[in-house]
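Minutes, project huddle
Topic: does the predicted pose make sense with guanosine-5'-monophosphate bound?
PN asked that the exact inputs be recorded in the minutes so nobody has to dig through chat later. Recorded below.
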Amino acid sequence: MEFEGKLIVVTAPSGAGKTTIVKHLLQKFDFIDFSVSATTREKRAHEIEGMDYFFITTEKFKQLIADNAFAEYEMVYQDQYYGTLMSEIDRIWNSGKHIIFDIDVQGALTLKRKFKERCLTIFIKPPSKELLIKRLIQRKTESPEALKKRIDKASHELSFESLFDYVLVNDLLEISCKEAELVTQRFLNQ
Ligand code: 5GP
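Predicted holo structure (tokens), as shared on screen:
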């Protein structure tokens, strides 16, 4: 039977713990690979070019938009672009694997519109808005100004939950990881 690559799109308001869940799924399933996004934001100290992101200039990003190179892209924060390259999707499917994405809410909805039933969208929801804000503050990766931007955006994104295939309340991380595993497996077995 010919391989039909699928997409598992994990999204959440910033700070809801989606990256941990994505990493867990990648470690659990060797038939899934991570879609490395392109971004114009600054590289953080621990990040690796080509593994966490492709860090590119805004000029280059705009050129790629003009060339229709993106499956989706968003200005996630003011003047900071993030996007999924079509070449990244092709690369992973050509290697015989399914793809997992860690992208924002709007980008997730775009991929769903584009790939329909080949795509599962999972919305990770924090148990409460207060906890989400606490997690963002604890992360200490942002300046106070950037932190405020993220809190505002996360609050807005919480209102989109009904548009997703599966809503996962991230209370106890261990249980959430297990739940994500089950949902993913069920979707890939369809
Ligand atoms: P961070 O700067 O913390 O790595 O990511 C900021 C936000 O951008 C996160 O919500 C992340 O999931 C999202 N993001 C990362 N890559 C992409 C992408 O390719 N497209 C979209 N739309 N959002 C992305």
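Observations noted during the meeting:
- The beta strands are 7-11, 32-34, 37-39, 53-55, 70-77, 80-85, 98-102, 119-125, 166-169.
- The CA atoms of residues 65 and 149 lie 25 Å apart.
No decisions taken; revisit at the next huddle.
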